[in-house]
Amino acid sequence: MIVKDLSIKKLYYSISEVSRLIGEEHYVLRYWETEFDQLKPQKNRAGNRVYTQKDIAVIEAIRRLLREHRYTIEGAKEIMRTDFDMQTGTLTVPSDDLFSHVAEEKSVSEAAIEVKRSQLQAIKARLESALTYL
Fold first, then answer.
1. What are phi and psi of 48, to 5 degrees?
2. 10 Å Cβ neighbour count for 30?
3. Treating both helix axes as pointing N-terminal to C-terminal, what angle do 53-63 and 26-35 enclose, rounded to 10 degrees?
4. What is the pLDDT of residues 110-122, one digit of tens each?
5. Within its chain, how far is the Cα of 75 from the centroid?
6. Which site from 3, 84, 101, 130 is most exposed, i.e. has the minimal number of CB atoms within 10 Å?
7. pLDDT digits (tens, 9 = 90+) for 67-119
8. Could you name the CATH architecture of 1-93?
9. Which sign does the torsion angle of CA 104, 110, 116, 122 carry?
10. What is the pTM of this model?
11. Whether 93 contacts 83, CB under 8 Å
């Protein structure tokens, strides 16, 4: 779900309003506050969370990383720490590049599999050779 356009821009939004806008439950937003340093909404005199447009941009970036790009919390934290611009409220890395590390890890793991495969084939050959002596 993408942030819906608001007909009237406000300075502050309640957690209920943000929850409806983003499409996440209240408890999810509160949990993300504990996990992501970039998400620290202010509280009003009554102690209720009040979110600014920048807070909503942070939440939307977190939601995209976790829900659309399927990052783990730790992976999303790393992306937010290194590639999130707090001034503009945007990720500085293009969405196509979000998976570039996965391709690199896959090629490394494929190479490791090939090494293991050749080692196992060598072991198999030695065992077959030893079997002829029995």
1. -85, 145
2. 13
3. 90
4. 777 777 888 888 8
5. 5
6. 130
7. 988 889 998 998 888 888 877 777 776 555 555 555 555 555 677 777 788 88
8. Orthogonal Bundle (1.10)
9. negative
10. 0.64
11. yes
